[in-house]
Amino acid sequence: MQAKETLFADLVQGRAQQFQVPLYQRTYSWTEKHLKQLWSDVLEQAGLIDSSEEKGSTHFLGSVVLAPSPQNDATFPRWLVVDGQQRLTTLSLALAAIRDHVADTAPVEAQRIDEQYLINKWKSGDDHLRLLPTQADRTQFTAHIRGPLTDQDTSSGVATAYAFFRKKLVEADDPAAPQDVFRIEQAITSRLALVAVTAERGDNVHRIFESLNNTGLKLSQADLLRNYLFMKLRTRGEHVYETYWLPLQKSLSNDELEQLMWLQLVLDGDDRVRRQDLYAAQQRRFENTKAGDAEIEAYIKELHRRSAHFRRLLHPEEEPDPAVGDALRRLDAWQAAVTYPALMLLFDRRERGELDSAGTARALAYIESFLVRRMICRVPTNNLNRIFQAVPGQLPLDVPVTEGLHRLLSSENRFWPDDGELREKIRTAPFYQYGRWQQRKQVLQRLEESYGHPEPVDFAAAQLTVEHVMPQSPGDEWLRALGEEADEGETAEELHARFQHTLGNLTLTAVNAELSNHPFERKQDLLRGSHLEMNRRVAATERWGVREILARADELADRAIALWPAPLRGVGRAERNRDWQLAHQVLAALPHGTWTSYGDLAAFLGSGAQAVGNHLANTPGVINAYRVLTSEGKVSDGFRWATPQEAGSDDVRARLTADGVRFTATGAADPAQRLTADDLSALLAGTDDDDRVDGEDTAQDGTAGAPGEETRAERFFRQLAADDSPETVEAVHALFARWESLGGWIGHGAGHVTTSAYLMLGEAGGPGRGIWPMTVYPGAGRGGTAEVVFQYMAAREPFTDRALRAGLLTRLNALDGVDIPEGKLELRPNIRLSLLEKERNRELLFETLTWFRDRWESRDSS
After folding, report:
1. What share of the chain in percent tops pLDDT 90?
2. Residue 309 phi/psi, 5° resolution?
3. How much is the average pLDDT of 245-273?
4. CB–CB of 822/154 below 8 Å?
5. SS (HEC) of 620-672
6. Which of 307, 466, 498, 627 could serve as a FRET partner for 635 with CA atoms 20 to 30 Å apart?
């Protein structure tokens, strides 16, 4: 066998050849988790292309093991891909996505990509492809390489990967973090290193394959670096271990220690290093400097010194200065680990005497404001890592530390919103749909604290959640009042969608269930008795509509501007472009078989339906723009293709049909396939954040507090019985009992409008422990529902496999009255609980839940 380091471009381009995936290989199986990691690596390398210091650097992607194919001949080499087919398939799909992304604007470049990396131009049939997957993947892979995509199997991993890259290429046009598409191509082809291992004809490729796929327990980066350090310490190892390392190891967990080691590299100027490359990067530093015992000991001693700083980030209660401690607690509650490089720099400067505690607190206020203002103004978070990792190396040296940080964060490419943008977004943006639940709650908490109430609320003890004053599901009385305020051509429902989630309509309360969807007069009575000043002010108004929401938004904007310092003047802004970029991202993410309306997209953006229509009509190249329809599901009379090239030979309805959108007898798009503003928000929300019912952890016993007090379980069934029939309540009792008989348990949350119940498997406790297929909600006037949490399942094994989620969808759709479109596999669709009154539906659901439990329990053996 021969092994050499190579690049994707060197491996696949040049003369005609083919890489064949043999039958014994598994089908393409990379999930979104793998794709996200690869994309992160690609963007990092794309950003290094013009760096003089990094011109020769590459990122190691893994190995590819090749053996001569039995079909090999001298004029057309063919290779069996013994190992590495997942990498080669993914890179090929990424390049196909780039080719299609630039096809309209740069057709010559698209053809070049095709001929260099994807096809053998002068070959036909299967030989036309540079990479030939297994038979199971071949049809879909060929369709994406050759086109056109006529019968797309959206459950296939190949289709999912291609769609992922198309979506990410749209996001890469983001003005907050621009990436040239051809740099991305260059990063894929020329900066991702592979080790190509080539077997000889007589080698046993099956044995090679088996040995390559045996895995063991991997050492962490911290383990590897520790072993390396003490192997290098020849004379003072025991002294250094007892004096510095052992106390360090006792004060931090292994994961925390690894994070500190990474931060040390960043603080020393290596702002490009990734945590997973920590060991190699630090080892390279020591080898390049020919470090001996003294240098190794100094490194460990410095780690020990900085561990005290790091512990204060993890445990703000250990900070002796009250103002600094309060600021650290707020950043900790915000889950702002991304800011650690900047925070560690501040603590280091304070220890060295270059910064006092007052200056440290002011610098922390700038960092908090930077995060909060960006969140309120919906600035994407995808470049926050880069921003804060760059702080140690870019902090100005000609001014004091605090002023330097203020100047650095205010620089043009940091996108720190000014007062004008902050005020506008507080008035119009759907605040409730952006950021994490604890971040939304913290913003409202800080605004409440700004009133300086003589009897301040103990937020740590109070069970407060975010409440909509104008409810999310308004009754007829609310809609009649909104109708009186609606402009010509706008319905009360559209007005409600625009303003329901804005900050002016939100508050904090511990009586969400009692407030629920009641008319405003009833809510006034409850809010008057609140200890929160913001609630008393809402209760003091005579009515509650758009005018009152906007007036309150202006008042809160004044307070926000005073609470969170502004950036320095002279910073250029691109607010509207950023809003339209958000529209482009969400349209690119529309799943197969779905559509949305102008009003839904406008409510998601905090814009107007007419502005959305004008933008789509006049902006070429917006993916899926034709899937934005009127609220009735019809193509708008004013719709036109932005360019003749986009129109092609198909009309809009033909395009929609090809995308899996169904039409009713009246010619309208199927309303079941429509994505609302909330659905659009969920599409971009991701699955990493366990944002359960306003952030409440589930409790297995459902206890609410003191003895004799109503438990959460009792509260759930009381609310369910208030809105649903006795037959439905009995069916839900039976559902819960059957779930428990399968080994599951019922968790109850406090709820954001009413309480809720989770059908849980696995460990009780916090987010990320175990899995749940659905969440059950009482109706609050609309009838109870079971929310199928496909979006959360997608981040939990084994349901990261889209085919398994599709199998669950098929089983649920067998219930009479259930018809969930395939496009909602990325979301959280609802099933009415009243359907469980039918005995056959109950039995089918029990069978489905048993299937779900069995798949989850067999996850480690599959």
Report:
1. 49
2. -65, -45
3. 90
4. yes
5. CCCCCHHHEECCCCCCCCCCCCCCHHHHCCCCHHHHHHHCCCCECCCCCECHH
6. 498
301-326 exposure pattern, b = at least 16 Cβ within 10 A, e = fewer: eebbebbebbbbbbebeebeeeebbe
pTM of the entire structure?
0.73
- Report the distance separating Cα 856 and Cα 258, nearest Å: 31
Q: Is 4 helix (H, G, I), strand (E, B) or coil?
A: strand
Separation of alpha carbons 456 and 459, rounded Å: 9
- Give the tens place of pLDDT for each residue, 742-782: 999 998 875 544 578 999 998 654 444 579 999 998 875 56
Return the pLDDT at 812. Answer: 96
User: In this structure, are residues 301 and 339 in contact, taking their beta carbons and an 8 Å threshold?
Assistant: no
User: Is 12 in contact with 117 (CB distance < 8 Å)?
Assistant: yes
Residue 184's SS3 state is: helix
Reading the block at residue 249, the tokens are 């190891």
Using CA of residue 511, residue 513, residue 516, residue 521, what is the dihedral sign? negative
Question: What is the per-residue DSSP string for 8-30?
Answer: HHHHH-SSS-EEE--TTSPPP--
Residue 234 corresponds to which tokens in the numbers above?
A: 């020849």
Q: What is the CA radius of gyration of the chain?
A: 29
User: Which residue's structure tokens are 């036909």?
Assistant: 124
Residue 427 tokens, joined: 């008035």
Give the burial string for 4-43 (b: 16+ CB within 10 Å, else e). Answer: eeebbbebbeeeebbbbbeeebebbebbbeebeebbebbb
What the block records as the tokens of 134 is 């297994």
Flag whether pLDDT at 692 surpasses 50.
no
Residue that the structure tokens 């509260």 belong to = 715
Q: At what angle do helices 546-563 and 419-428 cross, to 10 degrees?
A: 150
Q: Residue 413: name the closest of 694, 178, 631 by CA.
A: 178
CB 80 within 8 A of CB 68: yes
Q: How far is CA 471 from the centre of its chain?
A: 27
Question: Could you tell me the sign of the dihedral formed by the alpha carbons of 495, 500, 503, 507, in that order?
Answer: positive
Q: Count other Cβ atoms within 10 Å, centred on residue 550.
A: 17
The two tokens of residue 770 are: 């175990």
**Structure-block tokens of residue 349:** 């400067």
Q: Which residues contact 502 (CB under 8 A, 6 or more apart)?
A: 426, 427, 428, 429, 430, 431, 432, 549, 553, 606
Residue 276 has pLDDT above 60, yes or no: yes
The CA distance from 232 to 469, in Å, is 64
Residues 6+ apart with CB under 8 A from 624: 587, 588, 590, 659
Answer yes or no: are the C-beta atoms of 670 and 633 closer than 8 Å.
Answer: yes
Q: Which is nearest to 447 in space by CA: 558, 322, 329? A: 558
Amino acid at 169: L
Residue 817 · residue 708 · CB < 8 Å: no
Residues in the chain: 862
- 8-state DSSP, 699: B
